[in-house]
């Protein structure tokens, strides 16, 4: 797992495939409260990848263990990442079989450990605005069989750490416990943390006030929960400020 993490060409992905993205730092988005900013971050290094491989009892027979990597067909850029990993892994003697799969099939296949692929491309967002949300939905054993936990990680130690953290009332203490869980997961390396996805939307800045976009432009923290940036009750529209030509919407 660590060898494959070293195979990823993070710079090309960030600069060419997903411009505006940031390389992920661990299993929690960097803008989510409770994210640990002090985690180890992988860089592409095929020498280190081979060093990790040599520690495996399967090193001399890698050709006998091909890796099946599924990418979501609705996100074409996932294929580019998958093919890059395939090419780099091949340099180390690792065979990666890249498979295009529609989203509903992803959910179906990941419901059973027998049908879950060795690797699956995914974006995951928190269900509530704290690190504990992503840690629980991604790495607690009770999430196995859902699309969010294709790793099938079943660690009583990590389960206990997550449960202890999310039930801690004091915020400072809770966040420190989140930090410890993230360190444990990065060390275990059940996933490859590639990028924090930028969300881009077009809107009229001349007469539409969008709180989330305004906060983001100022460098302020915004809610990472999916959909919260489109809470239209907080939007404000000033038609009189619209630059010409302007055609009002007529339902």
TrEMBL record:
Task: Output the Gene3D superfamilies linked to this UniProt entry.
Answer: Dipeptide-binding Protein, Domain 3
Q: Which Pfam families match?
A: SBP_bac_5
Gene Ontology annotations of biological process type: peptide transport
Q: Where is the Solute-binding protein family domain?
A: 1-105
Record keywords, A-Z = Signal, Transport
Transmembrane regions: none
One Gene Ontology term of the molecular function aspect = peptide transmembrane transporter activity
PANTHER family annotated for this entry?
Answer: OLIGOPEPTIDE-BINDING PROTEIN APPA, PERIPLASMIC BINDING COMPONENT OF ABC TRANSPORTER
Family statement? Belongs to the bacterial solute-binding protein 5 family.
Would you tell me the protein name for this molecule?
Solute-binding protein family 5 domain-containing protein
List the source organism.
marine sediment metagenome
